[in-house]
Design goal:
32% strand; 2 helices; six-stranded mixed β-sheet; 60s Ribosomal Protein L30, Chain: A; 132 residues
Length: 132
């Protein structure tokens, strides 16, 4: 099995993790690492859940595109919300960016994330078809 690490130019780079990975062998699984509401420079895009959710999903979409996938290929999203946030605000923002692509979703309420200013983190698992 080969693992291909994805780091789209439109995302901030971290020496600690890949934005996504693809495993290649009998099948291809694209794993999108947890994305937050930060832009390509690593700056937080806002201090509210809606703006951070929109950006986190844009970041997920960037990793999917880098791996040759889109929303339709996502099998699972995991969404981590900091306690005290209204999930309806995240849902409304996600509809704007993600559209109507149903997938399995797990929403977890957590005490906090890696940066105390982060309100949401989203990761994804997608199946990538074989290149033509």
């Amino acid at each position: 099995m080969t693992i291909i690490h994805l780091q789209p130019e439109s995302l901030a780079r971290s020496p600690a993790f890949s934005a996504g990975t693809i495993t290649q062998g009998a099948g291809r699984l694209l794993v999108v690492g947890g994305q937050n509401g930060v832009d390509a420079s690593g700056a937080l895009v806002g201090h509210d859940l809606a703006s951070q959710t929109r950006q986190a999903l844009r970041n997920v979409l960037a990793v999917l595109a880098e791996g040759g996938a889109s929303q339709k290929d996502v099998a699972k999203l995991t969404i981590y919300l900091v306690a005290g946030q209204d999930p309806r605000e995240a849902y409304g923002a996600s509809a704007e960016v993600w559209g109507r692509f149903p997938t399995a979703i797990t929403v977890l309420i957590v005490a906090g994330l890696a940066n105390p200013a982060f309100l949401v983190e989203i990761d994804a698992l997608a199946h990538v078809g074989d290149p033509a």
